[in-house]
Amino acid sequence: MTTVAIREESLLSSGLTALRLDTLSSRLQEGIRLSGEELAGLVDVTNDGIADLCGAASDLRDFGKGRLVTFSPKVFIPLTMLCRDFCGYCTFRRDPDTAGDLYMSPEQVLKVARAGEALGCTEALFTLGERPELRYPEAKEWLAERGSQTTLEYLADVCQLVAEETSLMPHVNPGTMSRREMAALRPYNPSMGLMLESTSPRLYEKEGPHEFAPSKRPRVRLKTLEIGGELGVPFTTGILVGIGETRMERIVALLEIRKLHDAHGHIQEVIVQNFKAKPETPMGEAPDAASEELLWTVAVARLILGPDMNIQVPPNLNSDNYEIYLNAGINDWGGVSPVTIDYVNPEAPWPGLAELRNRTEARGFMLKPRLPVYPEFLDKAGAYLAESIRTKMSDVIDHQGYVLGGIERYAGTS
Ligand code: SF4
User: Fold this and answer.
1) Ligand 1 centroid distance, CA of 18 (Å)
2) CA of 216 relative to ligand 1 center, distance in Å
3) CA 143 / ligand 1 centre spacing (Å)
4) pLDDT tens, residue order, the chain (414 aa)
5) 407 CA to middle of ligand 1, Å?
6) Which run of H or E residues covers position 367?
7) 289 alpha carbon, distance to own chain's centre
8) CA dist., res. 8 & res. 16, Å (int)
9) Residues 161, 180: contact at Cβ < 8 Å?
């Protein structure tokens, strides 16, 4: 019996009767998409069928991306941990009483960026709370003293500083953005990020994780992503797995992302991020997302989004077994920092780059550093990247658009 036949038999026995695995990979490679019936059938795949589903997704990744896996060498800059929202799983947010510094100063930002520059990092990831000035007068005052009315105005100023004073390229992840705010950030950011997380309305109902987080309403997040498309901003987005959503709701969120990409071509990467419970949060007792559920979701993301999409699982949130997701169709590890911690998940250190390379290569893949914008957007740079960014990039990329010098550039990878 061939591998494909074994997979098909297994899937049929797991209830996925609408999906023909013997033709699935070739159909998707031709650009034919899963039917509604097939999508509904995915929901019923049991744990016994997941390996076969992953096999089909892995074949599709090989067709589109080959055996190349990327990561972005970065520093993480938590410009402010103040936030107007309250999500049930978050330990990042602070209020003014617990924040210490309300915002990082320009000098503090530059210091972190220069430390990353010294180690060959190319991305300055700005992650911050959502519009804290709307909740905290202290935040408003801090900003006013420095000539800014809003956090996003201040963010644009420090992005300019980093872009002009260092070799790093900013990638902002500040929550929802208006058209005007995004346009002000665009000259310094080759790409931006906003996790869609979920499109489930149930999650913002009473006692849901987003009950007190107006910025997590799917409508406003989809709007930000749409504005990104209209402005020609390469965008990273993604979904969370295990915060109370169903499998079908994950499929719906992935279809929304695909719809945006169909309309604008600007979704550069989709993160499939597993929920991990953090003590002292409202979801502290909730179970972590199971490996099987993450495998199912990664494979389904690949099957829905197709061979050309970049799909990522964060290795630091899966330190025991992150390499298994290579066999479900991913081709990227996201930002990995040799300098700073993951302030959103401080309990989860990033792997060292030597370890990341070894564990990636052990599965038969090659690891390469990339910029915060993927090489495929460099081919259409005129539509997506400001002239100043294109000039800056040309100094640090090889002929394929990856970071010059490859993985060997980074200490500790021999
Ligand atoms: S997850 Fe983001 S929006 Fe939600 S509370 Fe934390 S910082 Fe705020």
Assistant:
1) 39
2) 9
3) 20
4) 344 344 444 444 444 445 666 577 788 888 888 888 888 889 989 888 899 899 999 999 999 999 999 999 999 999 999 999 999 999 999 999 988 899 999 999 999 999 999 989 999 999 999 999 999 999 999 999 999 999 999 999 999 999 999 999 999 999 999 999 999 999 999 999 999 999 999 999 999 999 999 999 999 999 999 999 999 999 999 999 999 999 999 999 999 999 999 999 999 999 999 999 999 899 999 999 999 999 999 999 999 999 999 999 999 999 899 999 999 999 999 998 888 878 888 888 888 899 999 999 999 999 999 999 999 998 787 789 988 898 899 889 999 999 999 998 885 544
5) 33
6) strand 366-369
7) 17
8) 9
9) no
Question: Are 96 and 284 in contact, with CB atoms under 8 Å apart?
Answer: no
* Superfamily name with CATH number, domain 65-409: Aldolase class I (3.20.20.70)
Per-domain residue ranges of the chain:
3-64, 65-409
Task: List all residues whose CB is within 6 A of at least one atom of ligand 1.
Answer: 83, 85-87, 90, 92-93, 129-130, 175, 213, 215
Distance CA 316, CA 96 (A): 29
Dist CA 312 CA 270 (whole Å): 6
Q: Which of 80, 87, 204 best tests ligand 1's pocket when mutated (most atoms within 8 Å of CB)?
A: 87
